[in-house]
UniProtKB/TrEMBL annotation:
Residues 22-488 form the Aldehyde dehydrogenase domain. Belongs to the aldehyde dehydrogenase family. Homotetramer. Signal peptide: none annotated. Its EC number is 1.2.1.3. This is aldehyde dehydrogenase (NAD(+)). The keyword Oxidoreductase applies. The active site is at 260. It comes from the Bacteria. The lineage of its organism: Bacteria, Pseudomonadati, Bacteroidota, Chitinophagia, Chitinophagales. The keyword Cytoplasm does not apply.
Length: 507
């Protein structure tokens, strides 16, 4: 698989597939522009309603067969996908970098996350365990087991155009589900590339057509998935606004939703912090992926005794950032996804200034040679107050707010006093401070780290957050249970039938 092959498949076969087969569609055309230089990468025809219905029906039909495959055998398919991803890591990583705009190292890193979740899922395929319980009735046995749900709908975002799909899909597949994926319309070619890789493995192993469905389209396609009773679970990653719409639509039909939404993540830096670690963690967390991660560090909550030291070190570090073509590994920061994102970035800067924020590292749009796309911006730092409306808001751009505190209780209160609850961190060598931050009286986020930044979650841990982040959990730990239905079983191996509440019938 090379880049030209991806374009050829996308333009000739549309962006709708049931696995190995590509489905004709009369949907509108999406043009993929790279934020690297603004040029056209390629075009994809989107799903119309007939094509969508065909993909979902095929997924339903395939589920009947796929769920019969032993879980370790399904795991073997995922293992082979992981091996294929190792083979295609370089071209797929470059495509991710080019279409999305993240640095080349991050593009490769995203594909590595896909490989890692495949490895995790392979082991999981032999560990889909239930529980056994003691019955109150003699000669009875009770236990729990988990069964696949059916068709899992996956709506993914542009900032991780392939990894988040894999987090959901590999687990859903080993659990016995089939999947229908609606990728971001901003990164359709990455999705076509993934479908090509999967189709090679599926064809070699006679996997039922429909286990891997792809439906590229706009918001309307996401609405079809959300309201479709044939799709018992919809996993959606994106903005809180989008997540609320999906949750409402799925709940209306009493379906299940798994939501990974916005983050307004903070690092608390105490006076007992290792400053080298703190600055490095804050820097990567704030500017990585040009601030377009759900785990991006957006707030630094700094103890007043070390506030000026941290500020000065950060200003110096920001002055050394190299901004430019993400395919050049010497650059630290690439472009925002499109000019709409640039407008939101500029609007947020103005709102911060209007509320009284003072920028110690100024922002702005970069112009000139190498910046022709209009999507390159300067990572900036503002001194602000926790109560500013803009500080409470998640801006998907490299804007970092510095906030000052006196006591740790105050810092934790500031940390928690935002609508979102995804990732958080504290930088301290003080054991008491670390333990308080991790306690019931500490961070209210789904992820809480000590001496590690807010970005860079590992596959082995469950990923997700609370409050307006949606409450979902993906990837490691027991996140697999979200893709299963739970069943309690009781077996009576006696010669009697004891009835509930001691009721007796004389017959």
């Amino acid at each position: 698989m090379d880049f030209l092959h991806v374009l050829n498949i996308a333009e000739k076969n549309n962006g709708v597939s049931t696995g190995v087969k590509w489905i004709p569609t009369t949907g509108e055309t999406i043009t993929s522009y790279t934020p690297v230089d603004g040029s056209v990468i390629g075009t994809v025809n989107t799903a119309d309603r007939n094509a969508y219905d065909h993909v979902v029906q095929q997924a339903q039909d395939a589920f009947v067969e796929w769920r019969k495959w032993p879980a370790p055998k399904r795991g073997e398919i995922v293992r082979q996908i992981g091996e294929a991803l190792r083979t295609y890591k370089e071209p797929l990583g470059k495509l991710v970098s080019y279409e999305m705009g993240k640095s080349l190292q991050e593009g490769y890193g995203e594909v590595q996350e896909m490989i890692d979740i495949c490895d995790f899922a392979v082991g999981l395929s032999r560990q889909l365990h239930g529980l056994t319980m003691h019955s109150e009735r003699a000669s009875h046995r009770m236990y729990e087991q988990y069964h696949p749900l059916g068709v899992v709908g996956i709506i993914s975002a542009f900032n991780f155009p392939v990894a988040v799909w894999s987090w959901n899909t590999m687990l859903a597949w080993v659990c016995g589900n089939t999947c229908v994926w609606k990728p971001s319309e901003k990164t359709p070619l990455c999705a076509v590339a993934c479908q090509l890789i999967v189709s090679e493995v599926f064809a070699k192993n006679n996997v039922p057509e429909g286990v891997s469905g792809l439906i590229i389209g706009n918001r309307e396609v996401g609405e079809w998935l959300s309201t479709d009773t044939r799709v018992p679970l919809v996993s959606a990653t994106g903005s809180t606004r989008m997540g609320k719409a999906v949750a409402a639509a799925v709940a209306q039909r009493l379906g299940k939703s798994l939501l990974e939404l916005g983050g307004n993540n903070a690092i608390i830096i105490t006076k007992d912090a290792d400053m080298d670690i703190a600055i490095l963690g804050a820097l990567f967390g704030a500017v990585g992926t040009a601030g377009q991660r759900c785990t991006t560090t957006r707030r630094l909550i700094i103890q007043e005794d070390v506030y000026d030291t941290v500020k000065d070190k950060l200003v110096k570090a920001y002055g050394q950032l190299s901004i430019g073509d993400p395919l050049n590994e010497k650059n630290h920061v690439g472009p925002l996804i499109d000019t709409d994102a640039v407008k939101m970035y500029l609007d947020s800067i103005e709102k911060c200034k209007a509320e009284g924020g003072r920028f110690v590292v100024e922002g702005g749009v970069l112009e000139g040679k190498g910046y022709e796309s209009g999507c390159y911006v300067k990572p900036c730092i503002a001194e602000a107050q926790p109560e500013y409306k803009i500080v409470q808001h998640e801006t998907f751009a490299p804007i970092l707010y510095l906030l000052k505190y006196k006591t740790l209780d105050e810092a934790i209160a500031i940390q928690n006093n935002v609508p979102q609850g995804l990732s958080s961190a504290i930088m301290t060598l003080n054991l008491r401070e670390a333990e308080q931050f991790l306690s019931y009286a500490g961070s209210d986020c789904g992820i809480a780290n000590v001496n590690i930044g807010t970005s860079g979650a590992e596959i082995g841990g469950a990923f997700g957050g609370e409050k307006e982040t949606g409450g979902g959990r993906e990837s490691g730990s027991d996140a697999w249970k979200a893709y299963m239905r739970r069943q309690t079983n009781t077996i009576n191996y006696s010669t009697n039938l004891p009835l509930a509440q001691g009721i007796k019938f004389d017959i």
